[in-house]
């Protein structure tokens, strides 16, 4: 409990007192707030104020952001005492959050990180870090984790976007013979075992081999190698990795594996060639643009999944689609069990050194057997994704963590793998499984990729022609920016016309699978052409003009590149069909 009272500063402004500790200046809280704002308020930053107090700091900062005294600034207020002071909050009501629901808080933080591209300043109201020490530490840890996740996601998108788009084009060629994830929504109660490559996997493989005919098996990504070494051919393998290096390390030597690959359209296209059964495709992000593209261009209903940070998270979602029966996880350590990184049959296996632990800032979490186990930010993010998923799945009581090691996944029942199998497996499931898997191999799509990709070439060529024409005209009119008496109205009109033209180009881009590259390009251009505080209206418009020109030049480059790439793929396909 907190003793909350209000007093008055020397300048007669109300100030907050909590447990006999003053939150604002006892002399002039207004001046104190102005001093902090002068020091901390920055362009294109999210300003997180920990502690509302009476609101002098937050309210003044909000006004400056609304009045555009700062470019692209955002405000977020977090107060663990919000329930007690809510009635005193005035203009900042929609910007303030408590710490009662950490899932909501994480989502809010993610939203703001996206808005300002991970640029954050934390401003702790005076004495709040003393009064709410544990809450403040918890908040800082959450912020650090969410910023790390954002950085990882951003790096993945920016470093692999072109390869992802090329993978999508290649994987489109598989769709006439493959199915989609909708084909795997079974009305069955056959148990499903989701297999990951954690250090605890090895001890479960003998049991899995014994019962494999009576359960559906789903392997997460590169764990396929460990499972094959145990003479187990899984029913399904899930892959969402688009990197060539991942293919070369884990799949290149695999030939004619009799499993069905469940793959995102962004998965590296060569991985599909390692499996000889019918595959099933999906998108890794829920997006109206993706769904519209699939429906209009591919004439297919393709499921979009946006669940978690790892292949195993996707495997969990897919398992819950496949069966209404029980689901078991094995090898899902999400920790360095016995200081090992993976199962000893995995190509990435090694034991951690003390130097690695310190350098990578690994930390301890609650373990499967109530002990403390070492984990990383990445694995802990995966664990938290599972904890969110378990709350969303239909009948969560049917999901069991049978890893018998690693980290405890909150909300997921724990039992031994032997107990899970002996309690849930029935002999009839062997016949049911055979019939079910046979049915998945039937049927072919009517989709014709050559026809669709040929249409996309025409769209790219139209984009290329339009941009080349526009840039040629702009080069002729280049004296606009050379004019010393440049008139703001002329530049405004020019930028408005360019904006309308770019909108037309973007509408054309919606008809082709180029969204990942566009997302990366647009973000990089946004970051490269941020206006500065103090810029005149004319300087801002010159900035926008240069950004628009750069955007068109990059759009032209990627349009030409993907047009040529599709032509190469179509030529390869034609040669195979000769």
TrEMBL record:
Per UniProt, what is one Pfam family of this protein?
MptE-like
Which InterPro entries does this one have? MptE-like
* Recorded coiled-coil stretches: 464-498
Keyword Coiled coil in the entry? The reply is: yes
Domain annotation 6-hydroxymethylpterin diphosphokinase MptE-like: ranges: 166-338
Q: Which key words are in the record?
A: Coiled coil
The reply to whether Coiled coil figures as a keyword in the UniProt entry is: yes
Q: Which PANTHER family match?
A: 6-HYDROXYMETHYLPTERIN DIPHOSPHOKINASE MPTE-LIKE DOMAIN-CONTAINING PROTEIN, MOTILITY ACCESSORY FACTOR MAF
| The protein's name in its UniProt record | 6-hydroxymethylpterin diphosphokinase MptE-like domain-containing protein
């Amino acid at each position: 409990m907190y003793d909350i009272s209000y007093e008055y500063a020397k300048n007669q402004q109300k100030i907050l007192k909590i447990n006999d500790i003053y939150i604002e200046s006892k002399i002039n809280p207004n001046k104190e707030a102005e001093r902090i704002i002068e020091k901390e308020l920055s362009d294109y930053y999210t300003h997180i104020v920990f502690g509302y107090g009476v609101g002098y700091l937050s309210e003044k900062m909000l006004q400056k952001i609304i009045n555009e005294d700062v470019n692209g600034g955002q405000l977020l207020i977090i107060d663990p005492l919000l329930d007690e002071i809510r009635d005193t909050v005035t203009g900042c009501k929609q910007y303030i959050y408590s710490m009662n629901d950490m899932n909501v808080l994480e989502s809010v933080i993610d939203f703001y990180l996206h808005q300002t591209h991970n640029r954050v300043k934390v401003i702790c109201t005076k004495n709040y870090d003393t009064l709410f020490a544990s809450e403040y530490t918890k908040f800082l840890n959450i912020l650090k984790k969410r910023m790390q996740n954002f950085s990882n996601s951003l790096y993945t998108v920016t470093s692999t976007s072109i390869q992802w788009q090329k993978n999508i084009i290649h994987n489109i060629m598989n769709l006439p013979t493959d199915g989609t994830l909708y084909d795997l929504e079974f009305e069955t109660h056959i148990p499903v075992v989701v297999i990951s490559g954690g250090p605890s996997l090895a001890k479960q493989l003998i049991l899995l081999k014994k019962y494999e005919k009576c359960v559906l098996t789903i392997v997460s990504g590169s764990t396929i190698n460990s499972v094959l070494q145990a003479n187990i051919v899984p029913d399904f393998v899930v892959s969402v990795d688009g990197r060539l290096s991942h293919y070369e390390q884990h799949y290149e030597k695999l030939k004619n594996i009799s499993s069905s690959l469940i793959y995102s359209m962004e998965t590296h296209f060569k991985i599909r060639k390692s499996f000889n059964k019918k595959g099933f495709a999906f998108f890794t992000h829920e997006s109206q643009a993706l769904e519209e593209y699939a429906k209009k261009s591919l004439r297919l209903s393709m499921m979009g999944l946006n669940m978690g940070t790892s292949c195993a998270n996707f495997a969990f979602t897919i398992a819950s689609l496949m069966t209404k029966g029980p689901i078991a996880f094995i090898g899902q350590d999400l920790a360095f069990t016995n200081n090992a990184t993976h199962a000893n049959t995995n190509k990435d296996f090694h034991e951690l050194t003390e130097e690695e632990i310190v350098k990578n800032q690994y930390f301890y979490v609650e373990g499967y057997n109530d002990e403390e186990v070492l984990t990383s930010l990445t694995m802990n993010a995966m664990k938290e994704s599972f904890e969110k998923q378990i709350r969303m799945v239909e009948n969560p009581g049917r999901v069991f963590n049978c890893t018998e090691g690693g980290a405890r996944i909150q909300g997921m029942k724990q039992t031994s793998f032997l107990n899970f199998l002996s309690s849930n497996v029935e002999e009839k499931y062997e016949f049911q499984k055979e019939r079910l898997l046979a049915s998945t191999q039937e049927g072919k799509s009517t989709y014709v990729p050559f026809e669709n990709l040929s249409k996309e070439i025409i769209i790219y060529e139209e984009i290329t022609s339009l941009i080349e024409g526009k840039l040629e005209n702009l080069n002729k009119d280049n004296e606009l920016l050379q004019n010393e008496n440049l008139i703001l109205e002329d530049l405004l009109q020019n930028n408005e016309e360019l904006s309308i033209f770019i909108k037309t180009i973007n509408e054309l881009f919606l008809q082709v699978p180029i969204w990942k590259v566009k997302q990366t390009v647009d973000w990089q251009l946004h970051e490269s052409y941020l206006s500065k505080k103090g810029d005149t209206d004319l300087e801002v418009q010159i900035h926008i003009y240069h950004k628009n020109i750069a955007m068109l030049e990059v759009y032209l480059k990627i349009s030409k590149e993907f047009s040529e790439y599709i032509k190469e793929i179509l030529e390869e396909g034609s040669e195979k069909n000769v």
